[in-house]
Design a protein that fits this description.
By secondary structure, the chain is mainly alpha-helical. The chain has five helices and two strands. It has two domains: about 45 residues, no CATH class; about 55 residues, no CATH class. This is Lipoprotein.
């Protein structure tokens, strides 16, 4: 599967290598980018230890009005389907802040609410 995401930077690789050395489980996306395995328990100490290595986040790109409207509709739909904690999208970028909601909630969303996701995200 192709991705629009750029390859991981040297700083990102160093950060995730640091986390791995601290015992954090790392998984790799289809395009080779390292990510924390969110199905495993969080390790706050490792993140504190490695935080100085974390590159600054890229500046978010503003979304189009249509993208913002679609993201708002999706959030409202998911809440109407019983996922009451699902956050509203950012009003500028249309991104969902995955820090809102627990890892358990995000895992349950993908595991237990596939019908709601299909209904609310028909284009995906």
């Amino acid at each position: 599967m192709a991705s629009d995401s750029p390859p991981p930077t040297a700083e990102e690789i160093a950060y995730y290598d640091c986390l791995k050395k601290q015992g954090v489980a790392i998984v790799y996306t289809d395009y080779g980018a390292p990510r924390v395995d969110k199905s495993k328990p969080a390790n706050d100490e490792a993140h504190k230890t490695c935080a100085p290595m974390l590159p600054p986040p890229p500046k978010p790109q503003p979304a189009t009005p249509a993208q913002i409207a679609a993201a708002q509709k999706e959030s409202a739909c998911l809440r109407a389907e019983g996922i009451s904690w699902y956050p509203d999208p950012d009003p500028v970028t249309a991104q969902i802040d995955d820090r809102r909601g627990t890892p358990e909630q995000w895992n349950a969303l993908k595991r237990d609410h596939l019908d709601a996701l299909k209904k609310c995200r028909p284009e995906r």
